[in-house]
Specification:
mainly alpha; 5 helices; cell membrane; transmembrane helix; transmembrane; DoxX-like_oxidoreductase; DoxX family protein
Length: 140
């Protein structure tokens, strides 16, 4: 029976949980990013906020970069900590700038994504990742 008050950490269990979080959060974010990628590829008039003042096309491109490419890196566990940085920035802008005046129920999803990205920034990608294989290879 599992002791609910045990404070020791099993590294394999922790890495499995991090893997599940990485794959889940990356898959969910990629689904958001693909609709933006389609908007970018379609051309025509882009209807996208420009919260940083860099232009609608540049703002959309930055969002696609974070939501699709960086999420893919999270999915495979490559450069995980680095990949979380654009995602954290994207969520901070979404929550506090784009939806800053909106009620909490509108911001809630962005805050949850933000919390998971901060968690992955702190923990890294775990044992079941390309990062782990690279770091293991570099140790010898």
């Amino acid at each position: 029976m599992i002791n609910l008050f045990e404070i020791k950490r099993n590294e394999n269990y922790l890495s499995i949980i991090i893997l599940v979080i990485r794959i889940s959060i990356a898959t969910l974010m990629i689904s958001h990013g693909l609709s933006k990628l389609n908007m970018l590829i379609a051309g025509g008039d882009i209807q996208f906020p420009d919260p940083l003042g860099v232009g609608k096309t540049a703002s959309l491109t930055l969002a696609v970069f974070a939501e699709v490419l960086c999420s893919f890196f999270l999915f495979i566990g490559l450069a995980t900590r680095l990949a979380t940085l654009p995602l954290i920035i994207t969520m901070l802008v979404a929550v506090f700038v784009i939806h800053g005046a909106d009620p909490m129920d509108v911001k809630e999803m962005g805050i949850l994504y933000l919390l998971f990205y901060v968690l992955l920034l702190v923990t890294g990608s775990g044992k079941f990742s390309i990062d782990y294989l690279i770091s293991k290879k570099n140790r010898y």
